[in-house]
């Protein structure tokens, strides 16, 4: 980078956090080169995510790109997200390996589907987390090719919310309040290779083996999936037929 670029970056980084009102609209962007990134994934960066405060109250909207820049995350930018866990009739969990084209955490294994509700009327609906469940239905079809009629919002159990932050690399990261959605059903799959490198169903024992391999750096797992697996997942998994006892819509687990 030339000297002028360096000074622009330096002045941005040294400028300190913007006033909160700016966080509620659009946060000023540092220059980020995206020439080397996947074209289809770059197009998705213009989608509008839902900005929230630490109590999950909506404060505005911003692009997926702005929401995932570490420079903005460091200033407190936080958005709404979800993580879906689909189990088949044998109680095995469907995992996906994120494609190498993904901008954050490429090539990492994770739960069935992770994404964001968008700042649209249908996905902003907060009653019973209906907007989030609609977003999950949309992304399960987009990523895994599951027909929408096989993953209706009514079939998804909204358990609780998790607040976490994680860096993917020096530029990109995650800072989300993540709605946990469970579902048990045998579904048809036709994954989009731009989104998903591979997928598999695993038993509890197989997942524990994968978590061990991740600790030994033999494979990569997303930080949110790792956090959920190490804290809540196996307890929930043991009680797939009786999840009501774990539903907590009042508290947000800060991790």
Automatic annotation (TrEMBL):
It comes from the Eukaryota. GO terms for molecular function: isopentenyl-diphosphate delta-isomerase activity; metal ion binding. GO terms for cellular component: cytoplasm. Its cofactor is Mg(2+). It holds the Pfam family NUDIX. Its EC number is 5.3.3.2. Keywords: Cholesterol biosynthesis, Cholesterol metabolism, Isomerase, Isoprene biosynthesis, Lipid biosynthesis, Lipid metabolism, Magnesium, Metal-binding, Steroid biosynthesis, Steroid metabolism, Sterol biosynthesis, Sterol metabolism. The keyword S-adenosyl-L-methionine does not apply. InterPro entries: IsopentenylPP_isomerase_typ1, NUDIX_hydrolase-like_dom_sf, NUDIX_hydrolase_dom. It catalyses: isopentenyl diphosphate = dimethylallyl diphosphate. Residues 77-227 form the Nudix hydrolase domain. GO terms for biological process: cholesterol biosynthetic process; dimethylallyl diphosphate biosynthetic process; isopentenyl diphosphate biosynthetic process. Pathway: Isoprenoid biosynthesis; dimethylallyl diphosphate biosynthesis; dimethylallyl diphosphate from isopentenyl diphosphate: step 1/1. Belongs to the IPP isomerase type 1 family. NCBIfam families: IPP_isom_1. Catalyzes the 1,3-allylic rearrangement of the homoallylic substrate isopentenyl (IPP) to its highly electrophilic allylic isomer, dimethylallyl diphosphate (DMAPP). This is isopentenyl-diphosphate Delta-isomerase.
């Amino acid at each position: 980078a030339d000297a002028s670029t360096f000074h622009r970056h330096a002045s941005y980084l040294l400028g300190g956090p913007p006033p909160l009102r700016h966080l509620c609209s659009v946060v000023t962007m540092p220059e980020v080169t995206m020439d080397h990134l996947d074209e289809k994934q770059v197009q998705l960066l213009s989608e509008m995510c839902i900005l929230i405060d630490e109590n999950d109250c909506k404060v505005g909207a911003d692009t997926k790109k702005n929401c995932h820049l570490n420079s903005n995350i460091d200033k407190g930018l936080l958005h709404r997200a979800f993580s879906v866990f689909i189990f088949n009739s044998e109680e095995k969990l469907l995992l996906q390996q994120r494609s190498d084209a993904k901008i954050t955490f490429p090539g990492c294994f994770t739960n069935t589907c992770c994404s964001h509700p968008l700042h649209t009327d249908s996905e902003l609906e907060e009653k019973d987390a209906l907007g989030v469940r609609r977003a999950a239905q949309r992304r399960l079809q987009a990523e895994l090719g599951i027909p929408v009629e096989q993953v209706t919002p009514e079939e998804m159990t909204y358990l609780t919310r998790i607040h976490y932050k994680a860096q993917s690399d020096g530029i990109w990261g995650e800072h989300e309040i993540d709605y946990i959605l469970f579902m048990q059903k045998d579904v048809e799959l036709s994954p989009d290779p731009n989104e998903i490198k591979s997928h598999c169903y695993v038993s509890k024992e197989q997942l524990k083996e994968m978590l061990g391999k991740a600790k030994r750096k033999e494979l990569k797992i997303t930080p949110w999936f790792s956090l959920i697996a190490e804290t809540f997942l196996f307890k929930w998994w043991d009680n797939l037929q009786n999840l009501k006892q774990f539903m907590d819509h009042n508290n947000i687990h800060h991790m």
